[in-house]
Every structure is written in structure tokens, then in C-alpha cells.
């Protein structure tokens, strides 16, 4: 099969693996094949040590993803729709719990499942032409891939209600005060901005990043005391890793070198 007909494309930029939802003629609306391909691509990137960061974007210039495929959805009965939602939730949970940092590179419409997918990533970098909505209510339905759950953790309840209950589409600039967007850039600068963020993140020890992310993800799920216990346990596990020892040692070595340089330059008293 020629590469450009695959439902998800993969490209490597140094430590960054860029996955592209590839259905531009339908604004990258999700199909089960696309979800399965996304999960496989995530598995492959997880197993590749040279990939430190995974970003997801949409093909074409209009959309990140316009949500679940409405034509297909309309033909489902209740049981099939339930199973469809579970499949979507599984993919999004995979992304949310992914050990490596993830970036949603939002290059246009992020609607319904597209918005949910973007919110399941750790960082969201948007182009100026990006927009975000949960339009399901306008179809007399509701979000089913975490839009009433994970979105609440990312947006806060009031903001999530604003999106879910109004169905209104907000531009990237309008969304900036809501706090879920890392950066908004010109469309032509989007890949560079994502690459720069990935380069910054890739400089850190992968195990420290993984432990910190796991602890952060539990924050909205646990009572404070249980969350703090879990944080201390993750801290201890990471503390015993070679990366943490090396990081602390390097800091001490730099300090020592600075102190030595300072004493060497102090003029000797007559
Ligand atoms: N499911 C299936 N097909 C979709 C789709 C979706 N969620 N979103 C867009 N498409 C298709 C359109 O049917 C159209 O295909 P066609 O040319 O074969 O008819 C193509 O993508 C382009 O979309 P179009 O509507 O012509 O583009 P537009 O710029 O006029 O409008 C949107 C863009 C995003 C505003 C509009 O497509 C839309 O409202 N889509 C549905 C979004 C939604 O409700 N998502 C939640 C789903 S649960």
C-alpha cells in the first residue's frame, strides 16, 4: 500500500516522532481503522528508545480532527455506540498514560473526539487557525471519549461545562486564557514550535519525566494524602535511578568548580 493512504503516517525529527492523522478529505474524522493505527503507532514509538517525544497532528491545512465519523456513528445502535466509545476511550487513555511526553500539534479544527485527543496529550501547541469545540450537544448527543471526564481534569469543571453544554467553537486565541494551550503560533511556524518544545523536553532524563508524569496524572484522581504518599514513593523510585544520581552529582560538580574558580581569583592579602 502506498504510504500516503495509511490512516496514520509517522515521521521522525531527531527525538520527535510525529504521527499524522491521514484523512484530510474528511477533516481527519476518526474511523476504527485510524484509532487502531494510532494505537499501533504509539506502541511502536514507545518501543523505540531514540523516540523521546510523540506529537500528533492532522493532515491538510484545515483540521487536526473533526471528531468521530458522524456518517458511521449515525448507523450504530446503542450497544455498538457504547462499544465504539469504549474503543475511543481506550486509545485516549493509552495516550494519557503514555510514558513519554506527548504534544498535540493542532493545525485546524479540533472538534469532539479531536478535542478529546488533543486534551489527552501533555502539551497542546496550536496554530492561529486552530479552533476547539465539543459540538456533540448540537447533534443531541454528548462527548464520549473523555469530554466529560478527562476534559474536566484539564479544563476545570466550569470551562468544560462551557464547551460541552454550549457546543460553541472557540478560536485558539480565545482559548489561551483557559490555560490548556501551551503556545499559539503562525501556521507556518507550528512544526518548528513543536520541534523546539520536543528538543527542550528531550534534554531531561526519560525516567524522571515518566515518574513525574505518572504522579501528575494521579493528582486529580486521589485524595491529597494518598496523592502525596504516591508522590513520595515515585520520588524515591526515581531518586535511586542512575539518572537522578548523575543529575545531582553534575549540579554539585558545577558548584564546586564555581567555588574553586572564585577562590582562585580572590586577591591574596599583602
Ligand atoms: N464525520 C464525518 N465526516 C466529516 C466530519 C465528521 N465528524 N467532519 C467533516 N466531515 C466531512 C464532511 O462531510 C465533508 O465531506 P464531503 O465533502 O464528502 O461531504 C468534508 O469532511 C469536509 O467538511 P465540510 O463540512 O465540507 O467542511 P467545512 O469547512 O464546510 O466545515 C466543519 C467544517 C468542521 C465545521 C464541519 O465539517 C462540521 O461541523 N463537522 C462536524 C464536526 C462535529 O460535529 N464533530 C463531532 C462529531 S461527534
UniProtKB/TrEMBL annotation:
SUPFAM superfamilies: ClpP/crotonase (SSF52096). CDD domains: crotonase-like. InterPro entries: ClpP/crotonase-like_dom_sf, Enoyl-CoA_hyd/isom_CS, Enoyl-CoA_hydra/iso. Gene3D superfamilies: 2-enoyl-CoA Hydratase, Chain A, domain 1 (3.90.226.10). GO terms for biological process: fatty acid beta-oxidation. GO terms for molecular function: catalytic activity. Pfam families: ECH_1. It comes from the Bacteria. Belongs to the enoyl-CoA hydratase/isomerase family. This is Short chain enoyl-CoA hydratase. It comes from Caballeronia hypogeia.
